[in-house]
Design a protein that fits this description.
With 298 residues, the protein is an all-alpha fold. It has a single domain, classed as Farnesyl Diphosphate Synthase (Orthogonal Bundle). It has 14 helices and 2 strands; from the N terminus they run ααββαααααααααααα. The chain has a two-stranded antiparallel sheet with strand order 1-2. A hairpin with a 2-residue loop joins β1 (56-57) and β2 (60-61).
Length: 298
């Protein structure tokens, strides 16, 4: 109830309108499916915050922190948070089954949902292990359930043709990566009041972001040492974090990531222009979704 971006339900609706030819949209099932995805994200965020030792989420306490304030015991609080996430996951699947997909698309929708869930879990595992293939992590962890999965599910709800599904996949794949690239920039350079997280959050958490990956090849030896001192150090001072973020800016690491972001967005736009089978209203919505992802500040 604290808010959030709500981009995934928008992606569902845009995918639905890109495929649906009826003049009377099925809003009830669009909303049900959107709620399912929001609950899936809630479950994933609860666990992600605990794994990353994040204390804040959307400007308030993370679930395990809120439970700690209630019960006083760290392990018990974490256990309660994990169970709350499990309940959210159960509700997500319940609402998925309550969504009335066209009969010929019901099995494909279930497969798309389970694949999306499997990919994001694999991506999280690779992220925790600090896997060096950052783009692969982005593709699995974020692209799967932020753009590709929701757009596909919305299209299946609209009884999309195989040609439409392929066109939407070509759009969603680069946009999902662009979403995470924007996340990486915001996680280091974003405004605390907008993101709901402390400045330099990703650095203190030790995340192997696209910024860090680029910086390894661009920073001087002295600046790499400063980066290593801050990366994964929750006790790093604000001055130390500021020094590293300044180095990331000066070295060109930020510019490279933002250039890659622009390329991915251009790829997604081009895919929509080539998607001749897609409905114009849906294409317009997908372009609006792209702009929201590209320009968001949280």
């Amino acid at each position: 109830m604290r808010g959030g971006k709500r981009l995934r339900p928008l992606a569902i609706y845009a995918g639905y309108r890109a495929a649906e030819r009826s003049e009377e949209p099925n809003f009830e099932d669009v909303v049900t499916l959107g709620a399912s995805i929001e609950l899936l994200q809630t479950y994933l965020l609860i666990q992600d915050d605990w794994m990353d030792d994040d204390e804040e989420r959307r400007g308030g306490p993370a679930a395990h922190v809120a439970f700690k304030r209630q019960v006083g015991d760290t392990k018990l609080a974490a256990s309660l948070a994990i169970l709350a996430g499990d309940i959210a996951a159960g509700f997500a699947f319940e609402l998925l089954h309550a969504t009335r997909f066209p009969p010929r698309r019901a099995a494909a929708a279930l497969q798309a949902f389970t694949t999306m869930h499997f990919e994001v879990v694999c991506g999280q595992q690779l992220d925790l292990l600090g896997h060096e293939a950052v783009t692969l992590v982005h593709h699995l962890k974020t692209g799967s359930y932020t753009v590709r999965g929701p757009v596909t599910l919305g299209a299946l709800l609209g009884d999309a043709s195989d040609e439409q599904l392929q066109a939407l996949e070509r759009f969603a794949r680069p946009l999902g990566i662009a979403f995470q690239l924007r996340d990486d920039v915001l996680g280091t350079f974003g405004d605390t009041h907008s993101t709901g997280k402390p400045a330099g959050h990703d650095l203190r958490e030790g995340k192997n972001t696209a910024l860090v990956s680029e910086a390894r090849t661009l920073l001087s030896a002295a600046d790499r040492d400063r980066l290593d001192e801050v990366l994964g150090n929750p006790l790093a001072t604000s001055a130390a974090v500021d020094a590293v973020t300044g180095a990331l800016e000066r070295s060109g690491a930020r510019a490279r990531v933002e250039s890659e972001l622009d390329l991915r967005l251009a790829e997604a736009r081009a895919a929509l222009q080539e998607g001749q089978t897609l409905q114009p209203e849906g294409v317009a919505m997908l372009l609006q979704l792209l702009e929201r992802i590209a320009l968001r500040d949280r």
